[in-house]
Amino acid sequence: MPKFPTFPTLYDDCLQISISGLKRLQYLNEPSYKGGILNWKRNDVSTASIRIEVNTLCELPYIELDYKCNEALIKYRVQLVSIPSNLGNGIVWFFVCPHTKKRCRKLYLGDTYFYHRSTFRGCMYEKQTQSHSTRKLHKQFDKLQSADEAYEQIYTKHFKKYYRGKPTKRYLKLLKQIEGANGISEEALLSL
């Protein structure tokens, strides 16, 4: 008897706020107090937006979120913490989840608030919902696609295959991608 489908909420479909996204938008690059609007788009159509304020000047840095969800106005602060980089240059920022108090680099909007992913029960990543044979099939097709892209790069107009008589590292890497795709047989694809 087949398993009854559950149709879990996917983290990939939830709205997310990430530290790397805030750094890309230059909210965390230097100590400051900045505000702005974050927008989410899908297929070039705006799906959501929220107003944020990031304060990294005070003793307890924070990000303040102000948005409307399910016809209710929501405004709250999420604590930010920083630790020295293990490389010795700069600092690494983290959110402190308002619900679990865990440090994290991404917050997800599962229901009403942006929380750490462990807060939401029954949520999965899209990859987790795929069968093992589907995952293997995607892996094989990814190899084939990367081989096609490697061929395109090698045969561009000014691509250097050799430098001073030796093959370049980039050329060797692309050849390795092509060889990986050549190892895929039709029987292997048909068995999936």
Instruction: Count the beta strands.
Output: 11
For the sheet with most strands, the description reads: 6 strands, antiparallel
Poorly predicted runs are none
Share in β-strands: 25-35%
What is the global morphology? Answer: extended
Number of domains: 2
Q: What proportion of the residues is helical, as a percent range?
A: 25-40%
Mean pLDDT: 84
**Helix vs. strand class:** alpha+beta
**Count of DSSP helices?**
4
Q: What is the H-and-E element order?
A: EHEEEEEEEEHEEHH
Radius of gyration: 23 Å
Q: How far apart are the first and last residues' alpha carbons, in Å?
A: 22 Å
Query: Strand arrangement, largest sheet?
Result: 2-3-4-5-6-7
Provide an overview of this structure:
The structure is a single chain. The chain has helices at residues 19-24, 132-154, 169-182, 186-191, and strands spanning 15-18, 33-42, 45-55, 62-69, 72-84, 91-96, 103-104, 106-109, 114-115, 162-163, 166-167. By secondary structure, the chain is α+β, with helices and mostly antiparallel strands. Strand 5 and strand 6 (91-96) form a beta hairpin. Helix 2 crosses helix 3. The longest helix has 23 residues, at 132-154. The two termini are 22 Å apart.
Describe this structure in a few short sentences.
The chain is of the alpha+beta class and 192 residues long.
Task: Give a topology summary.
Elements: E1 15-18, H1 19-24, E2 33-42, E3 45-55, E4 62-69, E5 72-84, E6 91-96, E7 103-104, E8 106-109, E9 114-115, H2 132-154, E10 162-163, E11 166-167, H3 169-182, H4 186-191
Antiparallel strand pairs: 1-8, 2-3, 3-4, 4-5, 5-6, 6-7, 8-9, 10-11
Helix pairs in contact: 2-3
